[in-house]
Design brief:
By secondary structure, the protein is an alpha+beta fold. The chain is 31% helix and 25% strand. The strands form 3 sheets. Strands 9, 10, 11, 12, 13, 14 and 15 form a 7-stranded antiparallel sheet that branches.
């Protein structure tokens, strides 16, 4: 039988996938360990960086490719990564995860679109609107005014950065203006001049940074960060901040076995629906319903693993609690191996 190859692509700093307890700090997963686990499962491993990809000389058609992303300030390098991964997608590579999940990584507008496309039935969505320019809000004003409060999120950002609460519609407009402003003195003056030179000319919006508006869920004291790696689940209970509605980035979380087991079924169902080997999910519970707040499938935090001395494993319809400290590279590799085997068998 022909040996299968997995291509692993790292950043210019030679970092592959975030790992909470890595040494040195922010150096990512141990690629030596990854290679070991994949080799033991019968895979050859080809280690690359994004700058090594030459589409004139290299053909990744029908080849398995694992890749990472970044949270660099301004997301400049992430934009480059997206170009390379989209090129590999067009070439026919078997990307894990698919390109659309990279696009959704720290891009809450596309995350909402992907949620709409994938979870159109059977999953309770948070009511939300995707805003391209500030003026779009007024198209939805009648619906928005039915809500008591609003959560406003910039498209970019992690750990609650760029997440704000508006207590009424007027405050929604005020805070939306602040986060969507696209000030450019020369460009704005030039645009105003066009209005005088060209009859009927419409000015460009001064608020073109995209964002989303979600309906606020009141009285939440916590949510759960759930990591699913194929049939294994790791869970953190995250408490909201003092005098704040946000739990992400609060630093107030514990690995605890005291939670409704149905949250794992909900999370596992989401992994299946998205057709992924592993996924990070932010889940809350209100009015006897689970809600998916956000999700990531590439380059997400792994504290739920490093802080846990146990995990839950799916066994038919039941979840068994396994007392064991987990290795992040091993858990990750096993999820990829199981995913690939499920596709090929």
């Amino acid at each position: 039988m022909k040996t299968k190859t997995i291509h692993i692509i790292s950043t210019y700093k030679d970092v592959f996938v975030s790992q909470a307890d890595c040494i040195p700090y922010r150096s990512g997963m141990d690629k030596g360990l990854l290679k070991k686990y994949f080799n033991e499962a019968g895979f050859e491993v080809n280690l690359l960086q994004f700058s090594d990809i030459d589409f004139r000389k290299m053909d990744f058609n029908n080849e398995y490719v694992l890749y990472t992303s970044t949270e660099d300030v301004g997301y400049y390098y992430k934009s480059y990564i997206e170009d390379i991964i989209l090129g590999l997608h067009l070439q026919g590579a078997k990307l894990i995860p698919d390109y659309e999940f990279l696009r959704a990584n720290n891009n809450k507008v596309f995350m909402e679109i992907l949620r709409d496309l994938t979870l159109s039935s059977g999953i309770e969505p948070l009511n939300s609107f995707k805003i391209g320019v500030l003026e779009d809000i007024y198209k939805y004003e009648n619906e928005l005014r039915k809500w008591d409060k609003y959560v406003i999120k910039t498209a970019e950002g992690a750990m609650s950065k760029g997440v704000f609460l508006a207590n009424d519609f007027n405050e929604l407009i005020k805070k939306s203006k602040k986060i969507s402003r696209t000030f450019n003195l020369y460009g704005d003056l030039k645009d105003i001049a066009r209005k005088y030179y060209f009859k009927g000319y419409k000015l460009e919006s001064r608020y073109r940074k995209k964002f989303i508006i979600q309906q606020f869920i009141p009285n939440l004291q916590n949510d759960w960060k759930v990591l699913i790696y194929w049939d294994k689940a790791f869970i953190l209970k995250r408490y909201t901040r003092k005098n704040d509605f946000r739990s992400s980035g609060s630093g107030n979380f514990i690995a605890d076995k005291d939670f409704p087991i149905e949250v794992l079924d909900y999370a596992y169902n989401l992994r299946d629906r998205f057709n992924l080997p592993n996924i990070s999910l932010d889940i809350c519970y209100s009015d006897k319903k689970f809600y998916l707040i956000e999700f990531q499938a590439v380059n997400y935090g792994t504290s739920a693993i490093t802080l846990s001395t146990f995990y839950f494993k799916k066994n038919n319809e039941d979840w068994n609690c396994i007392t064991e400290k987990s290795s992040i590279p091993q858990v990750y590799a096993e999820s990829i191996i199981n995913y690939i085997n499920s596709k090929e068998n």
